[in-house]
Specification:
Blueprint (H helix, E strand, L loop, with lengths): L1 E9 L5 H18 L2 E7 L2 E8 L1 H13 L3 E11 L11 E4 L2 H5 L14 H5 L2 H9 L8 H42 L5 H14 L1
Parallel strand pairs: 2-5
Antiparallel strand pairs: 1-3, 1-4, 2-3
Helix pairs in contact: 6-7
Length: 202
Amino acid sequence: MIRVTYLSRATEPLSADALVALLSQCHRNNTAKGLTGMLLFGNDTFLQSIEGDEAAVDALLDRIARDPRHTALKILRREPITARQFAGWSMGFERVTDGTLATMPGLRDLGLRNFNPEFLAASDAVIESLLDRHRSAHWDPLVRELDARDKLIADLREALARARNDTQMAALVLETVVEVAVDGRLDDAHLELCRTTLRSLR
């Protein structure tokens, strides 16, 4: 398998209806050919990453190069892969605006004016940031928030388990101290056990 990331410019402004038609075509064709990927569009600029069988990817790139909706196609990366980064998307899509850029860490000052082939072709770090949050099925902000909550719950459960364990250990040490104190057998070893347990609780 290979992954190819490219930039191109729209030959004319695309309406929302034209974008829907483009994406519907992508979904139909890519699903049939086992291709996955992500398409970002804004400021008349396409940024797309496509992955799948090499022959299928090359055939798609050839069609894109001949598509009258594209011009100035530039391949940024062509790399062999062993696993897909966009497995959840027959063709994921995000329309890039000043508003969407403002929500992306590290890109808040980018501005839509800089979402153009010339700037992006010279900005690998920006390309990485733009694509990175789409590299799993959980790029959506709401899903990311749910994932973060799940992680928080897991961390809290782990902390609770540790606290319960510490409580059990502390109770065991106290029981031991009480037993030996009653019998008059309290010695330095028991005191050190108390100190060690106390340190672990702090």
